Amino acid sequence: MPLNTYDVVVIGAGIMGSCAAYHCQKRGLKTLLLEQFSLGHNKGSSHGKSRIIRYAHTEGVYLPIVRDSYAQIEELEAKRNEKLWKNCGLLYMTNAKDAKIIAAHLSAHKCENTIIPGKEDEFVKLGGKIIEKEKVLSYRDTGSRGVTISTLKNVYKSKKVIFAAGTWLQQLAPELVPSIRAQPEAICVAYWKPKREEDLHYFTENEMPVAIMDNVETGEFVYGLPNVDYPNAIKFGFHGGDGYNIGDDISSPNQELIERPRRHLQLHLKMIDASAPVKLDRCKYTMSHDDHYVIDRLPESKNIFFTGCCSGTGFKVAPAIGKALACWVKNEKAPFDLSFFSLKRFEKSKL
């Protein structure tokens, strides 16, 4: 096989792309992982020290995917002899109707009513190759002859390609935008301190559960995590952001994205100093029309698959989605049903 020829090229080394590349290489496929920035950059959706991983969803299709991700995290912990997640429990506050739906799904899957580092390391240990700071300029699917990928520095040949480019999906595959939306949103992640230092112990990972508050009447959806990202401060933010175009300056957040969690803290968590956050981080979501993932084969292509529009909840299921994509590129059946996330749902909505 020539030097720049691969079985699979994965474009995007965020959590989704890293997991997909790992599983492709694990299955014996010569795999290249391309990233336009440095590994671990803060320009996308995969940076930060903590994430929520949860079974609780109103759509039951998510639960087998989450279960597989949990199993992979445990497997990776054992392999690396390293603790990668903390089970601190989840307090999910929502309306009675959604609460019953979530409880039913959890019971059906026998579930009692965070960051995942390491996939890139394990990918390289398996013989995979990562190239940083190499932006993809164009690609051409030639059918039986595979895909040609042109970057700023090289030209690569690959039998299969996976797009896992996050907010850059709309640039890689602009033909998808009319049907799936793929709208980037700039998120404001806020961190808050207790009013009294002696109350800090209530907000440690051993005392405070992950919390989700979903008020369907007001549209307020806020979330909180214990003080694991920054010393003496909890993560508490609004699930949502402002739409933007790639290249826009998003360094100054919309103040309403700070005001919404601030109001909630002021009303419901009075031990927290809600006068102002002590730290602000920026993150990005990529949204579909219905706020669910889009995972499919690129239209009119035999060899290109993509995952995107993870809408702020994709980090926790990346190990499982990566495994499924690796199955697809080997023409194998995925270990769980992903039809819910296909492009076909948007075709039906036009009828």
TrEMBL record:
GO terms for molecular function: flavin adenine dinucleotide binding; L-pipecolate oxidase activity; sarcosine oxidase activity. One of its GO terms (cellular component) is peroxisome. GO terms for biological process: L-lysine catabolic process to acetyl-CoA via L-pipecolate. Its cofactor is FAD. It catalyses: sarcosine + O2 + H2O = formaldehyde + glycine + H2O2. Its EC number is 1.5.3.1. Residues 7-103, 121-327 form the FAD dependent oxidoreductase domain. Pfam families: DAO. Keywords: FAD, Flavoprotein, Oxidoreductase. Belongs to the MSOX/MTOX family. This is sarcosine oxidasee (formaldehyde-forming). It comes from Mesorhabditis spiculigera.
